[in-house]
# Entry
Amino acid sequence: MALSSLFRKKTVQDILKQVAQNETDGHAALGRHLTARDLTAFGIAAIVGAGIFSTIGKASADGGPAVIFLFLFTALACSFAAFAYAEFASMVPVSGSAYTYSYVAFGELIAWIIGWALIMEYAIGNITVAISWSDYFTGLLESGGILLPQWVQMDYLTASNGFRDATALMQSGKTYANLSDGLKASYMAWTTCPRLGSFHLVADLPALFIIVLITALVYRGMKESRNASNMMVVVKLCIILLVIAVGVFYVDTANWTPFAPNGVSGVLKGVSAVFFAYIGFDAISTTAEECKDPQRDLPRGMMWAIIICTILYVVIALVLTGMVNYSLLDVGDPLAFVFAKLDLKWMSGIIAVSAVIAMASVLLVFQMGQPRIWMSMSRDGLLPKKFSRVHPKFKTPSYATIVTGFVVAIPALFLNLTMVTDLCSIGTLFAFVLVCAGVLVLQNKPNIPRGKFKTPYVNSKYVVPFMLVAGLYYAFNFNTKATMDFITNATQINSPTAIITALNKQESQKVYAYLVGLDANNSTVGTPDLEILMSQYTSKPTQYAAVVAGLPIVDSLKYESGLDLFKHKIPMWIFLLALVGLTIWSFKENLSLIPLLGLVSCLYMMAELSVWNWIYFTIWLLVGLVIYFSFGRKHSKLSHL
# Structure
């Protein structure tokens, strides 16, 4: 085949004809049951979950009350992307989301890449939510006096890594009693679990339970899924409104001072966690064929979901930071924590139950999205035909739903929460970037049928270059040191924990002897703890640098420099180079500002993720390309035209 066949495109007219011919080809139509209200509820179900009940705590602890600006910034970035999604959804009202949109804008190869990325996004997102649900559920059981063994409620990687770090810290002098709760749980799970030879049988069984339950519900039908989602949304909105109504009477405005204790850097520190709190609105677009009026209702559902959730996030953040000092909120269950802190135990119990319901509703929406991506790719011939099979009675993509259950359930037993959260974020952001770029590519093309919704046009010709120049001026005049350190790849000092966990027993003894000689605060009295000994200097960067410089260990354990340091900056360099290219493109082509800002915002958030997430994501895409060139390219329906 010619190279040009890799970028063969589908037209909007052909896609709409294909939907009409699906029943003739053996693909039954999906049931149309959803209205704008249902779509808004699905959006709220997907968005209001981890953000309200978990990540808002860490973000508030980093940014203080000013974290509300982070929620507003992230909502704005997601809104830019939502405009692009809404325009495409109105133009191409079929299942497939960004995959189908990319097929129209960029061609088959890019469509495959984004479809494969979406499969990862929804699968990893489901795994993330299932693990979080398991944490809340086991906590709820524990509060009721039911204690499950640690090895049946923790994933394999967390237990393994936690055992390693706990061992290293205890080797450096820290006692088991002084370990964090997370490390204690990991150590206990690893040391008490049954073994098969040298393999430790550690698996998150509650996560498996909820995935099986939700998959069965999604398989059963859209009506049932809609009704369950609507019910869960009503419950958790009532709980959140109750939290606000009760909490507002305990707000002490003195807790809002200082408003931004850690400055802009503190606010932006939680950007990835807060973004994860917003993902899910794009899953609405996968239900296009099950909407009664998709061209009208999809854009409305997306926008209302983002607006409602942003208002809730901002109000909750203000109430939480007003009830207790922001520095106390770095906990996994901030809502329950603040009420327990104020001795309102009955509220903590209600919140714990609602968190379990909220997480289940998020999982429901994510678990609906992925099978519909499989189905759309199968309809185009890029995946085996059975993935597009629709159940004759339930009118759901039955085979794809079952496969999704296995794809999510098995990794959820073993994968680490932090890893899957970041992988979900990068897959989602990649999809947002391509959808925004797709709107820009199609904006001036004639003969493209337009839907009822179109993104308002604002010329970016001079706006984006001005913003770039303003950003450079700020970086070099008000953030000079950080900017120059970034450009010159200046050596960075490792944190106490990073240094200590990298030491062997002999090195720990040498470092301990050295720090004892410097210890001016008698921190060695009682338990010899290297982490305490080193951490006492971190509040004074110059003194900490001098202490680290004198440690009797090799520099590679004390510092990060050269290629080891530069590799973490590669994503940001990619963003900066892309920003220059986008600025030139906008100036030459008079691009629309809103989708361009969405593209830039999402690309920036991708750059904030670690280089390892980029590497893992690239490996996933390469696996997908192998499948495409071995199966999809030959069986594509466009190859037979």
Observations:
- Residues 33-144+207-455 form a domain with the Amino acid/polyamine transporter I fold (CATH 1.20.1740.10).
- The longest strand covers residues 195-196.
- The longest helix spans residues 108-143.
